[in-house]
């Protein structure tokens, strides 16, 4: 079937994207620290990356619903390739911010499953499969693929120690960015083989009034949760480095195990009777685990808690994607997916504050971030509980 063939190509592409995205996201704050930038400057840089990435999301949503999600995916992979090339050759702060923004990995969490998604990927799955149960199954598979294959991305970071002996600290980062650029380019090529179903005619400029109301509820919850993620996650590799003296190799091990936990747990997402309950409960748990990390004061325990958080996130992410797609029309998949992601990205601009908080206290970034993400989970259920019938 054409749907199965398209999904296979999409899956292979997500494997390659996950490798590039995982390395690029984890290495960025460490690379900037190696260049001599302080945690405050790194945090402020992530704010600039976040604002720029939001503009790209708006562009992708407008384009995808009109010309197709395959083309949007190819554009996104091409920009990711270009951004990795730039990072392999520059020490200039402005270029680093611009490159990370184009690649779409600046200002987002360092979780391993992000490569399973991307501009237009969930929307493409929704176009290929009409039944909601099948959509959840397929999105869960992409989440699994993203988590498992991102282990190779954290594996790239683990090579930094060996390469730095030969090429120096900065040289090792740059060689690995060049390698990730080649991988992202291969992903873009594979996407060109996907055959996408014909797009339905767009009924509105962006969203219909009914869809806008549904999407706004999700967006509000995502903003609250995004504030928490922005405080805690983007600079988390730096947090482990500064407070527990973790090396890049040790950090890569932590995130590898977290990615593995996310991947395996995502396969169980479809077992929950209500996607809304699953999505809200796991977000609440994610926040509580961040709070526990903040006050553990033990590097190994913080690492273990983060791995458990990856497991919880892996269960919840596919459910949230399916809930978003359940309340909108087929001509609005791209817009809804991007618009619900925008508040999260904007809120994560608070990562600029994370650098300041790290200078004040070890606990503050993760403790405040955990409280906000837990509140986001509670708000998600409160706003969407009346929609649980349609989201089953």
3D architecture notes:
It is a single chain. This protein is an all-alpha fold and 392 residues long. The chain has one domain (2-195, 206-387): Growth Hormone, Chain: A. It has 15 helices and no strands. It has helices at 2-34, 39-67, 69-87, 93-103, 121-128, 132-158, 160-191, 209-232, 236-244, 248-266, 275-294, 299-326, 333-347, 351-360, 364-384. The longest helix is centred in the first third of the chain and has 33 residues, at 2-34. The relative contact order is 0.17.
Could you write a compact summary of the structure shown?
This protein has about 400 residues and is mostly helical.
Distinctive features:
disordered C terminus; Growth Hormone, Chain: A; 392 residues; mainly alpha
């Amino acid at each position: 079937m054409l749907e199965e063939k398209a999904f296979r190509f999409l899956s292979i592409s997500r494997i390659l994207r996950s490798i590039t995205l995982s390395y690029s996201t984890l290495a960025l704050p460490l690379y900037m620290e190696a260049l001599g930038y302080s945690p405050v400057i790194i945090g402020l840089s992530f704010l600039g990356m976040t604002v720029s990435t939001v503009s790209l999301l708006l562009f992708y949503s407008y384009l995808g619903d009109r010309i197709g999600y395959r083309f949007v995916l190819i554009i996104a992979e091409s920009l990711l390739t270009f951004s990795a090339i730039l990072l392999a050759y520059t020490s200039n702060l402005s270029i680093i911010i611009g490159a990370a923004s184009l690649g779409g990995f600046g200002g987002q969490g360092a979780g391993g499953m992000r490569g399973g998604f991307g501009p237009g990927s969930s929307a493409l799955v929704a176009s290929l499969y009409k039944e909601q149960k099948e959509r959840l199954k397929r999105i869960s598979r992409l989440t699994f693929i993203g988590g498992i294959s991102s282990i190779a991305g954290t594996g790239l970071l683990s090579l930094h120690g060996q390469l730095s002996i030969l090429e120096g600290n900065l040289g090792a980062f740059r060689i690995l960015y060049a390698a990730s650029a080649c991988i992202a380019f291969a992903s873009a090529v594979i996407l060109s083989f996907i055959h996408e179903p014909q797009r339905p005619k767009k009924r509105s400029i962006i969203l219909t009034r009914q869809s806008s109301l549904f999407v706004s509820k999700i967006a509000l919850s995502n903003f609250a949760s995004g504030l928490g993620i922005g405080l805690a996650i983007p600079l988390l590799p730096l947090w482990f480095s500064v407070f527990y003296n973790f090396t890049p190799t040790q950090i890569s091990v932590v995130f590898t195990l977290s990615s593995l936990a996310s991947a395996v747990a995502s396969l169980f997402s479809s077992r929950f009777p209500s996607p809304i309950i699953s999505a809200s409960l796991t977000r609440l748990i994610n926040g509580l685990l961040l709070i526990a990390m903040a006050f553990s004061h033990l590097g190994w325990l913080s690492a273990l808690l983060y791995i458990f958080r990856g497991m919880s996130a892996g269960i919840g992410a596919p459910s949230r994607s399916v809930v978003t797609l359940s309340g909108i029309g087929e001509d609005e998949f791209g817009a809804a997916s991007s618009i619900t992601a925008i508040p999260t990205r904007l809120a994560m601009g608070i990562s600029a504050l994370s650098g300041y908080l790290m200078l004040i206290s070890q606990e503050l970034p993760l403790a405040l971030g955990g409280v906000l993400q837990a509140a986001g989970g509670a708000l998600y259920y409160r706003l969407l509980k009346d929609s649980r019938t349609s989201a089953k």
